[in-house]
Each structure stands twice: as C-alpha cells, then as structure tokens.
Amino acid sequence: DDLYIVDSLEIPTADPQYLLDLARYRHWGRSVLLVDVNETPENIGTAAAGLKTINLIPALGLNVHSMLKHETLVLTLDTVAFLEQK
After folding, report:
1. What are the E-state strand segments in 12-83?
2. Belongs to which family (predicted)?
C-alpha cells in the first residue's frame, strides 16, 4: 500500500473521469483515500462524490480503518503538517 504527498487537491475539472485517469496515470491503485486539512476544493469534491474507488475526507476524520480500507493514501502538505502536530 502506498502513501503520496501532494501540494494540493486542486484539479482543473469536476469530471469524475479526469480523477480516475489521474489516479491511473499516477499508479495510485484500485482504491484511493484523499485527505486534506483545508476546505475541500470544489472540483475534486464533485469529481470524487460519484466514485466508489476514490474517497475524500478531512484530516480530522482520518482514522486507521479508513487508511487500511484503501490501497493508496494521498495527503496534502498541509495535512502532513497538521498530523505532525497531533
């Protein structure tokens, strides 16, 4: 299982297919958990809402069960800083 750190979760479109293609291009695997400490960008929230393989949660909601349920964990830099303070 993989861990990726990204600058932000901003994507140029709310099209779910774009998000699926991005995950495939980056080799994120079959199930992805995206975590952001800031307010969720609108495009990625809309794109992920209809997908069963990509989930989006706030950093405060991150738990072991959610992490183990997904093949890949994608955190923003701000989320990493937030978790380091915990």
Report:
1. 32-36, 54-58, 72-76
2. Belongs to the universal ribosomal protein uL4 family.
Domains recognised in the chain with CATH numbers: 2-85 (3.40.1370.10)
Which pLDDT tens digit goes with each residue over 3-29? 999 999 999 999 999 999 999 999 999
Yes or no: say if 13 and 84 are a contact pair by the CB < 8 Å rule. Answer: no
Helix (H, G, I), strand (E, B) or coil at 13: coil
**Across 55-80, average pLDDT:** 96
**Rounded distance, CA 10 to CA 6, Å?**
10
Smallest CA-to-CA distance from 3 within 67, 64, 58, 72 is with 72
